[in-house]
Amino acid sequence: MIDRYTLSKMGNIWTDEHKFSIMLKIEILACEAMSELGQIPKKSLEKIKKSAKFNIEEIAKLEERTKHDIVAFINNVGQYLGPEARYLHMGLTSSDLLDTTLSLQCVEASDILIADLRKFLTVLKLKAKKYKDTNCIARTHGVHAEPITFGLKLAVWYDETKRNLERLEQARECMRVGKLSGAVGTYANIDPFVEEYVCKQLDLKPANIATQIIQRDIHCQFVTTLALVGSSLNKFATEIRLLQKTEVLEVEEPFFKGQIGSSAMPHKRNPVTCERISGLSRLLRANAQAAFENISLWHERDISHSSVERIILPDSTIILNYMLHKFIPIVDGLLVYPKHMIASLGKTNGLIYSQRVLLELMKKGLTREEAYDVIQHCAMQVWQETSDFKDVLYRDRKVRRYMKPSEIDACFDIKYYTRYRDFIFKRVGLK
Asked: Where in the sequence numbering do the catalytic residues fall?
């Protein structure tokens, strides 16, 4: 991922320095376990623990010759150990080291993202409660439907984000697995105790069963979860973008002092960060597709997944971290315009109350079809003549046959539509 979207804490997890540090830790822990089994002399273990280190530049030079990154790493560490180097990587295969390291990196990345989501939930909770009673129009198919409150919109986001947090925690737990079982996962050349020991020290679980690698459905679940979270952020950002349209302008992403909206048009205040969120979410979904392709490998393993994962795993965690870093302040500082929301509620001249009138006519004895025909006829007059819906109802003989003016008036009470907001808020955990 390019530097523009890489935050330092997340970026550090995916550096070569950090990767090799984890690998070295795994190799030393494996030596500790083998020493407990009597396979490595205690003196040799102490020398390994004291002298083992690596040099990134030297590893790169060795990889140029060997064309194998793990062999280059092992050989480089071995240069500092002398005769004790023979105990390094004993009975292990490259993927034992790579996959266990990768799992730990994904767990570390998950911890950052989980913290981000919890912060996001806090912001959403405060905003939803703040605007719980702020009336606005709900839209279906982009067309005005019925009244809701802006707080209910945000409550939907809150509930979805709670699910995303649960999904990410589950994906983290799924990724919290290590593997040190040898060339094809049979423990032929390494005692299972070594795997159990190393994984315990790293707070990982040994894979129940493996081939040369940990099975890639696990990694796919992780990447698709990141894509799912990113898609939710895209959904939220898209709503803000739609509500920021000039002809709507019910909300607006923060516009800071000194910020430029357009190089050509000084008046512009564009939802550029929300648009960036939408764009980056596409990359997450593309990466998820690649993760699906990685599940099917030849027999006990081929290497076609490796090059893909070197891109999609760092990039997906970095992207989502950046998206949350940018979107949380947007929601926190969201500019909300209740007056514009009230104006929107009146744009259809009362048509948004049509269902209420429909139901009242049905209570009076009309069938649904009869009542629907009556109300739709009246509604079409409003669309065509831009007249007031209530006035049309007053004048309609069929409506007046069943409803008094006071009964018609009662159908236009906005409180009717939002009277269960406290019930909904309680159900989603927003007390």
From this structure: 141, 262
